[in-house]
Amino acid sequence: ATAEEDHATATAAAAPADNEPSVKVVVRVRPTVSRPVDGKDLWFVRKTAPDAVAVGDRSFAVDGVLDDRASQADAFDLVGLPLIENALAGFNTSLVCYGQSGTGKTHTMWGPLGAMVDSGSDHADRGVVPRVFQNLFSRIQRTQESSPEKHTSYQCRCSFLEVHNEQINDLLEPSQRDLQIRENAGNGIHVENLTDEYVSTVEDINQILMKGLSNRKVGTTSMNLKSSRSHVIFTCIIEAWSKGSSNGFSSSRTSRITFVDLAGPENDDLDGAAKNRTKEERHLKKSLSRLGKLVNILSETPESQKDDLPYEQSRLTHVLKDTLGGNSRVTFLCSISSEHRCRSGTLSTLRFGERAKLLPNKAVINEISEDDVNGLSDQIRQLKDELIRTK
Ligand code: ADP
Ligand code: MG
Fold first, then answer.
1. Does residue 40 carry a pLDDT above 80?
2. Does the pLDDT at position 224 exceed 50?
3. Stretch 55-76: mean pLDDT, rounded?
4. ipTM of the complex
5. Residue of the CA atom closest to atom 17 of ligand 1
6. Could you give the CA distance from residue 391 to residue 388 in angstroms, rounded to a whole number?
7. Percentage of residues of the chain with pLDDT beyond 70
């Protein structure tokens, strides 16, 4: 059995992870590509404790560190498992990979496309997302097999989008471009006309991941050579219905899992060399700086002054409204390199993590009980009566 299956001994209806922090920041240090001859090319990045990383003479407190020897399975254990617990408990959860270009965000999130094929030889390279769904689906299956009397049924549906040049494009239906964001009180943020696909097996998920990732702005063949120039967001909505003993329905829980693979700025962007910037680069830089600004404001502003925040100034922050300060438990995976030439990017990534840690997220269990439904039905009836009277 794989690590994911071994971990799946707990039932799907796991105990709510109540003492979990709403925001976690984890650092992953990527292995160096070219071994430096005399060590001059290496900068000092050290894991000084399980929850601290030091770069140069600066130390950062975080919630976890994956050093350059950490495997993809280690990454899943640290960030994937808690995410599954939270999602099954009814919380919205997000994983956001942030960091300079080439530091391993895409690698951590998805792994190589070839590794997603279940029997592939580079299975060990599979990223967090395929591992999460393998674990999730085997838990759901176990719960249904082990306690059929509880009658919990699950339904999962996925969508996949890309934010490129301030446009939201559907990665599952590439003809659908420049989609609009809608916001409503009940469901929060919603992208209009975005394709939703129902999934129930690991094969379904892998197929969707491969389809979506090969539609992103950088093709599969160049993905490992040239980094992507768009932000990619994969969302899965899990609905769980529990049937009561008497009259059928007793409660329903809905949780949304959001995986965000951000495009990173290139080295010279961070060093301020503003030459030859393409439209694509300008949009990218702008969306990242708006993300940074919003995180700054949210981490500094006291609760009472949080009306009218600049979410809508960029598609990225708008579509991530729940993840950034809202109803979601979120993990930021800050990916860094220990190479000397990356040092300003490394520092700015860690500073981003430090501020992101202060985001005021408040996640609630998204549950509707039989009583809630009955209450709402009563309310609807009353409103209808009133409407008829006033006509
Ligand atoms: P990013 O998405 O941050 O721009 P990538 O994930 O595309 O970076 O990584 C750049 C290259 O480095 C890819 O070829 C990737 O496979 C490799 N890489 C990144 N992290 C690791 C790692 N932890 N182990 C092995 N290879 C890695
Ligand atoms: Mg990438």
1. no
2. no
3. 93
4. 0.99
5. 104
6. 5
7. 81
111 annotated among ligand-binding-site residues: no
CB 335, CB 36: distance < 8 Å: no
CB 137 within 8 A of CB 200: yes
Closest CA to ligand 1's atom 22: 30
224 CB within 6 A, ligand 1: yes
Residue 105 assigned to a binding site? yes
pLDDT category of residue 270 using cuts at 50, 70 and 90: very low
Least confident of 28-42, 104-118, 153-167, 241-255: 28-42
Is 105 close to ligand 1, i.e. is its CB under 6 Å away? yes
Distance CA 211, CA 205 (A): 10
What are the C-alpha distances in Å from 103 to residues 11, 29, 73, 260?
A: 35, 8, 18, 15
Average pLDDT, whole number, for the chain? Answer: 84
Cα–ligand 1 centroid distance for 298 (angstroms): 30
pLDDT digits (tens, 9 = 90+) for 130-187: 999 999 999 998 888 877 666 788 999 999 999 999 999 999 999 999 999 998 876 6
DSSP per-residue codes, 11-48:
-SSPPP-TTS-SEEEEEEEEPPSS--SSSTTB--EEEE
Is the CB of 264 inside a 6 Å radius of any atom of ligand 1? yes
- Amino acid code (one letter) for 28: R
Ligand 1, atom 20, lies closest to the CA of 104
> Residue 248 pLDDT > 70, yes or no?
no
Per DSSP, which regions of the chain are E strands?
23-30, 45-49, 52-55, 58-61, 64-66, 93-99, 152-164, 167-170, 181-184, 188-191, 197-199, 231-243, 249-261, 329-337, 367-369
Q: Which residue, judged by its Cα, is nearest atom 9 of ligand 1?
A: 104
Inter-CA distances, 43 with 68, 136, 214, 375, Å? 13, 39, 34, 61
Instruction: Give yes or no for residue 101 CB within 6 A of ligand 1.
Output: yes
Angle between helices 202-215 and 128-146 (to 10 degrees): 160
- With a 6 A CB cut-off, is 103 part of the ligand 1 pocket? yes
